[in-house]
Amino acid sequence: MTKIVTRFAPSPTGYLHIGGARTALFNWLFARHHGGKYLVRIEDTDSARSTPEAIEAIISGLDWLGLAGDEPPIFQSNASARHVEIADELLRNGQAYPCYLTREQLEHEKQQARLQKRNFQSPWRDTKPNQCPTNLPYVVRLKTPMTGQTVIADQVQGNVTFENSVMDDLVLLRADRTPTYMLAVVVDDHDAGVTHVIRGDDHLVNAARQTLIYAGMGWALPVYAHIPLIHGPDGKKLSKRHGALGIHAYRDMGYLSQALLNYLLRLGWSHGDQEFFSMEQAINAFCLTKINKGPARLDFDKMGHVNNHYLRIADPSQLAKLLFQFMEEKTGTGLSDFEKTKIQTALPHVTARANLLSDLIGEIAFLLAKRPIELTQKASKSVREETVRFLELLVIDLRGIKTWNTEQIHASLQAFAVTNNIGFGKFGPILRAAISGGASAPDLAVACMLLGREETLGRVDDLLTSQVSSGERIKT
């Protein structure tokens, strides 16, 4: 039985975008499902547009997602001699021909074809080898059949038929003897033993042209599966305004790699109603027939929901390490061991309220705030004569708590409400203002527990002292 081999083959003319990441994931999963091999090939034949920065961004993006190839990345440019060899073989067997048109002649011939409403065809197509000049530069063109059809048996799109008469004689080798993408991709896939080509459906017409190259060499075709592209929320082609960003941008926004993979998996593929998948579950369930034929739509609300799920189920110590690194990259400064301990203790209590790592920073900010706490405008409105009086009485009860934990703090707050015959609304807002300044924080008892006795009482005293010193406290 032939071993399954897939490949992800990005062009290093830009970043690894979200559509490319999904293509890589589908190739990775399909190979894993069948116990096969998954390769990464950098298609850098366009040397004028390929950049080292883009190559680094693609490779590091795949590494972050856990989608690095099973072998070191293959660089297409390293196989140029092999590509030329195959072009020459196609020339010898009559499946290709040399075209000596100059740039000006080529434009003239194409213009005439447009005026006559026919496909361009080089006048050199049927020239016999002994009639060709020997001292002029030429490109090598594939001799596309003028009749008949080319049918792509696609695993996602079904059978797709192309009329040969509407396909041009594509260039395989440029005049400087450098290969074109169309030739290189076929040779590389064949030589690597690629059995399944899984890629975006914008390559569907390329499959027809590439099929003719396979036929010209007498090589077996790979199985094709062309995935519909990802569209924006408005149903239009994905662009930067929709979020067509590099994968690193999603990492920098605070998405977890596992969450992004889960979201991409379900973006155009489904397995019943299951929403969340471990990698093992995804590998076991993945198959090409469950890929939707229609384009998927990017949904940031859904992406955030998925990321929240992974924040909540993450191992606390691992999540803490990710958050520490994220915070240090954002601020450029490190955290003390004391701050790290406080944050790690707080994480289980705040992840439910956060979709991104950046949200978590906001949720734990109250822990790291320096005294005296500055009140937000909204929090300031909770500071009134009546509420200050309640806080003065409440702090006495808080100081009397023997064991400073969530249960004891909550019991003390409830007892205070009963004793004074008031609801939490009378004293809760000013207590929250004192301990967080109005910043986001969990339940009052939890927030006080996380801050600790000394810090909580100190922040309450700070607020009360500020009211006395400012003269805003009205004595009764």
Brief summary:
With 476 residues, the protein is mainly alpha-helical. It has helices at 18-33, 52-65, 80-92, 103-115, 181-191, 204-217, 247-253, 257-265, 279-285, 300-313, 316-331, 337-350, 357-368, 377-380, 385-399, 406-419, 424-436, 444-451, 453-469, and strands at residues 5-8, 37-42, 74-75, 96-99, 139-142, 149-154, 158-163, 171-173, 196-200, 223-227, 230-231, 296-297.
**How are the strands of the biggest sheet laid out side by side?**
1-2-3
Distance between the termini: 91 Å
The chain-level structural class is mainly alpha
Number of strands: 12
Number of helices: 19
Let me know the average pLDDT: 92
- What about the largest sheet? 3 strands, parallel
| Overall spatial form | elongated
Strand fraction equals 5-15%
Cα-based radius of gyration, to the nearest Å = 32 Å
Unreliable runs: none
Question: Approximately how much helix is present in the residues?
Answer: 40-55%
What does this structure look like?
The chain is mostly helical and 476 residues long. Helices cover 49% and strands 10% of the residues. The chain is built from 19 helices and twelve strands. Strands 1-2-3 form a three-stranded parallel β-sheet, covered by helices on one side. Helix 3 packs across helix 5. The longest helix is centred in the last third of the chain and has 17 residues. It is elongated and about 105 Å long. The chain starts with a strand and ends in a 7-residue tail after the last helix. The mean pLDDT is 92.
